[in-house]
Amino acid sequence: MPPEKKRMSISVKTRVRDAEATKLRILEAAKKEFSKNGLEGARVDAIALDAKANKRMLYHYFKSKDGLFRTVLEREYLNIRTEETKLDLENLPPRAALETLVRFTWEYYIRNPEFITLVNSENLCQAVHIKNSPTLRTVSQKFIRRIQALLDRGVRENVFREGIDAAQLNITIASINYYYFTNRFTGAVIFERDFTSPEALQERITFNIETICRLVCKN
Amino acid sequence: MPPEKKRMSISVKTRVRDAEATKLRILEAAKKEFSKNGLEGARVDAIALDAKANKRMLYHYFKSKDGLFRTVLEREYLNIRTEETKLDLENLPPRAALETLVRFTWEYYIRNPEFITLVNSENLCQAVHIKNSPTLRTVSQKFIRRIQALLDRGVRENVFREGIDAAQLNITIASINYYYFTNRFTGAVIFERDFTSPEALQERITFNIETICRLVCKN
DNA sequence: TGTGTAAGTAACTACATGGTGCATTAGGCG
DNA sequence: CGCCTAATGCACCATGTAGTTACTTACACA
């Protein structure tokens, strides 16, 4: 075998042994299983099976079930914050920027339903896994400062009301979108509607944008 | 023994065997355990122990772990709806009635933190336990109609905006209160605040009332 | 081409779990 | 008072669980 073919096999050819690929398969499978059944309900055997990996690998790379959960969760938080970063809030008029933010949050939850149940699991165990994550702290701070800057700009341009706290606003934006999805099953029983029909989704996002605009904007 | 003493023992004396009391102790213990650890995380042995009852009793009265969870959850839903019924929304000015409703929801979650985690568990398993509960359907319908009546009255009295849907409003009121509590642990990490300090609670309920009033009221 | 190391596998363990069979006992009722 | 039913208790089971031990195999580099 010529040496260049050997070299290629490192990066291009489908390798039989590929640590990174295996790790990723495990993480993807874990995300599915944890979000579907919760932290306690998730089965490591099921994760290993779905990842087409051996259970031993899972413990080799992530130490424990909780270690695996921690990694999954941190990746998910990083992912949403990264996507948020790409939002062009600074170059839009304040009101449009605000609406963009609300709509992004909404659509992110639709595209990533796992995120919500993972966060729920983490709160059930009182955030033990992320409590001491400096990375998470840093990206979160950045995000809040960005929203505060948007609020300040809106006030300067005389379109936003004064004295709104960025953290409170963030919590409210998250809540009206998050709650709708996480409680859609009990909601379907109580309100006797299909929460996921296109019409229902349309109605809700419209309502949510209205809610936030009336809260933040003048008039 | 005189017969009246025997009679008394049925209702007054501490009975060694008292089905209703045992049931109640099991239900209280189950509520604690299920809300603390989730449906999958809860241990029937722990429930029996805490209830000072035998595990056999638990299965005798509630058939299975899921049967017990169903009973606990239905009782909790009935409880919040019953308390809501006592709210004097009909005799207050519309705006005050709305504020009363928001404040009640907030305080109910503070007084009954278990409710939130129980509902989260139920949504994780896609509401299998309450899906076919006619009681729950009935009380929920009543509640929504009552809010719709309040909205209508507010419009007639020219203090509320037209065209607001009672279901959407209910979801929003629940969400801005519920989310704050259910996500207070991850929230503490992300926003670097104590979500449960008296000042934080005060700030949040004020913000939430403002949010709802600006959404519903004219001006 | 040979070799050390890291990737991968299968079988296993120790234990905890939800759930039961069966014997026992309290107490309301005739 | 004595009987019959419902409440209770104990010991047990089958199964599933997270985590591990001991081994094999691919492959990057010399």
Structure description:
The structure is a homodimer of 219-residue chains. By secondary structure, chain A is mainly α. Chain A folds into two domains: 1-62, Homeodomain-like (Arc Repressor Mutant, subunit A, Orthogonal Bundle); 70-216, Tetracycline Repressor, domain 2, CATH 1.10.357. Chain A is 75% helix and 0% strand. Chain A has eleven helices and no strands. In chain A, helix 6 (94-111) crosses helix 7 and helix 6 runs antiparallel to helix 8. Chain A binds a DNA duplex (30 and 30 nucleotides) through helix 1 and helix 4.
Describe, in short, the structure shown.
Chain A is mainly α.
Furnish the topology, listing elements before pairings:
The structure is a homodimer of 219-residue chains.
Chain A: H1 3-11, H2 19-41, H3 44-50, H4 55-62, H5 65-85, H6 94-111, H7 113-124, H8 134-156, H9 166-182, H10 184-191, H11 198-216
Helix pairs in contact in A: 2-3, 2-5, 2-7, 4-5, 5-8, 6-7, 6-8, 6-9, 6-11, 9-11
The structure holds a DNA duplex (30 and 30 nucleotides).
The low-pLDDT segments of chain A are 1-14
Radius of gyration of chain A: 21 Å
In CATH, the topology of the largest domain in chain A is named Tetracycline Repressor, domain 2
| Total beta strand runs of chain A | 0
State the CATH architecture of the largest domain in chain A: Orthogonal Bundle
Tell the overall outline of chain A: globular
Return the average pLDDT of chain A rounded to an integer. Answer: 92
The oligomeric state of the chains shown is homodimer
The CATH class of the largest domain in chain A, by name, is: Mainly Alpha
Helix content of chain A: over 70%
Order of helices and strands of chain A: HHHHHHHHHHH
Which homologous superfamily in CATH is the superfamily of the largest domain in chain A?
A: Tetracycline Repressor, domain 2
